[in-house]
């Protein structure tokens, strides 16, 4: 619908559902969060047979209630937004749909009921909701650091996958089906399990040569785990330092002094005329009022 | 009991039991530490059937001795402190109670005897006691670094848990009960086992798709372990640098020069003509007025 | 063949096959990359029995096509390069040969067919090809950091291997064949599995003493994983800082100001009276001559 | 034997055996290193039954040769050193003895033959020998960094062990013998396996509560692995920076300029009179000859 027909109540609704600056918006987010978590707990309990047998009806009914709530929310989201299609085709739009649809479909095809579990994906909304909370302050650094080292981490993961492919193929040739390395994809799965130091042990080399190669893979994996860590921690350190810098400047401008971690002007002269202090080391005149600064030295 | 009735002998007792500045206090802490460790070793040995059968009486008797000692300590702590209730309801108060009670209860309900093991929690006192030792110097940085990155690590763990929930649900749908993913909670347990690169292997994916998703989880887990490490090491580096800085400034103010971490000109000559100081190390003439700088060296 | 006979068409061919500056060269690299990946996917699918049975003919034919393509490439590489022997004996030369030969040999000895999988090694070319892509920018730091800490990481891995040997021998003596520690090499394999925190569990200590030593190994491995990480991240931080510095200097010289990583006064006012610049951000008067500084803002 | 009787040939011998500055000393070290590695390879091969059965005589004879060589070395070490007792009682002295004795004892008690494997401990000599090699340069930083964070890492490992004890006890109470948590020591072994993210899977929780607690332990272990890494990498960064600083100052004093990583004087003026450059940013006169520096700005 065009801008014209976009009515006031829609704007209000949008503010509540998508925004979080108004009390109503905040409330909506919190309630939504609780309902999402409740719905996931429900799905979990339902998946535990013993519990499901005991409380099947209760679980089923509350499931329906939540499904209806989600459906209403879904509809409200569609009618309140300016470009409904954009929302419907967006990642969150699809997730929201997937978290309601299966329940309805399960009326016709009971088999599909398990798909209700897909609403666990709604948990991702938690991030968007918590963005509003004080955690942002905590995670923004993190985000920038990770973003900054994204490309590097990509290269790294890329190398890991290639290594896994090559090692997997070699192990397939060396160990063969006898030891559970049935085919190359499975061997690659194994070498990822090994490179990442997870080591399930569902598949393990038995031939001496295989164990030797496995040892190499493990030591390699043990060694290269240092790489992403090094990257992130270096990037993060850089970010932190930059921030210190910015903070320092801010403080400087605000509190009218430039005492920072990196401060190099350490003299303690203060102007007799305007009491401004923290002058440059070689200042002869007050940077504030131009009054002469007698050297205390 | 009110401040009025709080008598002198209580103060003394308190000083010995809770303090560690007096020789008596130190001694008490050390003895306590030894008794705690002894009691835990006892519980361990007792839990080993073969040993328990051989030395049951000895173990039982020494258990009683320690229980009595702990009981006395517990009572002394109560009567020596000003606000007994505060201690009793405190974490350490409850732990201390839990480390004595089970033994007495086991007289009536033998089944509960195993709970004696709960006194392992008393080990936590070790931290409070060692706080007094030279390790503080070692762990204070650590503490501050961890505290500084607490919020960030929380966000991180939070993300890990959400990822585990989503992956767990997906794996439950993909693998199902056939491969041991009996229900969603168990699948979540599995994805935590995998994300953290622990990989017990008690449950492992068997379907190709499941193994593919598992590979993604592992690589993800392998990659994100870099995040907390990066955080802590960056925070820690910052702490260390700040310290260096403070030390430097102190030196600077004391020695009347601007030697900072970044300072490279460290000589203390000052021009007789214009009092300008902070000359280059090799300066022979004032960079300000061109006056000759007599070498103080 | 000597430089004399080296003809023009060869130069062209060489430019296309080995170079990547010309459109043709780029195209060749991209096509090659796709064919390599396709060939590996083929080998993977072939190794999965169920798939192989269904599409055996299709897989076999496409295998032959790729093998022929690789053979042609191999020949072209030989005739286009100035020193064919140097290429043939080079690592990539051998890999390229290994990726074609097995298929032909399998005509005579069908058993050797599996060796076709060796062409997975061709994946390594990906690195050379991607060198041309934007990832270089991302991985160059990485490369230098790793190179810088190469020697250190070598020492580290060396220590890990020695530790593994000693622990392996001890575990062999402690656990013996009963628990699967059949011989020393296998025990060493186990201790590498443990030190690197992979922990397959295909072999695990059962005697209390063995489990105690295993605990020591694990804690050691858990502790020392910090070492390579520390190295890389420190080296990497250093690299990053150096870069910042260089960038800063460049900027400084270029933009005629001394904005450095540590610079806090960033304004670019310069005094009309004495041309002194680098004033404090809030300066209203020249710190050098006291002349009024008109605000450029 | 006192200093008096300490004869010249002993000094020579000592120089060869313990020293490495003379060609003879270097040669001795290298030969020793080879023999040690050979002896360990022998022990390994011997431990592999199939190989032992084939080449038993050859292995046995070469074992005897090496044992005799080691015995001679041991005797030479004793007679060449000034304080024989000090060597005999030293760690290396005991190791050297343990690497020869078992073979002789096995003549009387064949059972003890396996103890020959103890000579793997001789590998530790490799460190002392390689100290002489170029690796020192690589590992000295490492050493200092680790030493600097020794206390901190100790505190950390200490915390890990306490955590393992408490979690182990709790898991023993929760899971009990049914799931393989037979006794507390074994549970502690399990929680170390889990905390260190090794995860053999030889023991794994089966009860929901147990799996929940296990999840907590894993996430904790996953989180705290950041701590030692953070420490080492921070300490290491500090070491590196200090070095840069020292190097910079050295360079400054030596090469008569102060261009360092931390350089803040970035102007490019050079004195017309004496061509000295790299003046302070605000220099008006050459710090070398006092000649006036015209401002290029």
TrEMBL record, chains A, B, C, D:
UniProt key word Ion transport: yes
Ranges for domain Ion transport: 26-237
Organism domain of life: Bacteria
Main location (coarse class): membrane
Gene3D superfamilies linked: 1.10.287.70, Voltage-gated potassium channels. Chain C
SUPFAM superfamilies named in the record: Voltage-gated potassium channels
Membrane topology: Multi-pass membrane protein
The name this protein goes by in its record: Ion transporter
Organism encoding this protein: Bizionia sediminis
């Amino acid at each position: 619908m065009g801008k014209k027909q976009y009515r006031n109540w829609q704007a209000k609704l949008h503010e509540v559902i998508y925004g979080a600056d108004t009390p109503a918006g905040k409330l909506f987010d919190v309630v939504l969060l609780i309902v999402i978590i409740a719905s996931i707990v429900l799905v979990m309990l339902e998946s535990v047979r013993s519990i499901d047998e005991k409380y099947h009806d209760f679980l089923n009914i509350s499931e329906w209630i939540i499904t209806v709530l989600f459906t209403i929310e879904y509809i409200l989201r569609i009618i309140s937004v300016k470009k409904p299609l954009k929302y419907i085709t967006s990642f969150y739009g699809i997730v929201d749909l997937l978290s309601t649809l299966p329940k309805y479909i399960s009326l016709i095809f009971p088999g599909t009921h398990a798909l209700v579990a897909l609403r666990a994906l709604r948990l991702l909304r938690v991030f968007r909701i918590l963005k509003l909370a004080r955690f942002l302050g905590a995670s923004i650094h993190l985000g920038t650091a990770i973003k900054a080292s994204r490309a590097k981490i990509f290269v790294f993961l890329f190398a890991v996958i290639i290594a896994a492919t090559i090692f997997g193929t070699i192990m397939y040739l060396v160990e063969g089906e006898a030891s559970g390395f049935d085919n190359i994809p499975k061997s690659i799965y194994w070498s990822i399990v090994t490179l990442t130091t997870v080591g399930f042990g569902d598949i393990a080399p038995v031939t001496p040569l295989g164990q030797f190669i496995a040892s190499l893979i493990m030591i390699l994996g043990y060694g290269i785990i240092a790489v992403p860590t090094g990257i992130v921690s270096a990037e993060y350190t850089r970010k932190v330092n930059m921030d210190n810098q910015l903070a320092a400047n801010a403080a400087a401008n605000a509190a009218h002094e430039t005492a920072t971690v990196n401060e190099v002007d350490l003299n303690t002269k203060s102007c007799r005329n305007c009491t401004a202090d923290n002058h440059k080391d070689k200042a002869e005149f007050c940077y504030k009022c131009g009054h002469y600064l007698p050297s205390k030295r």
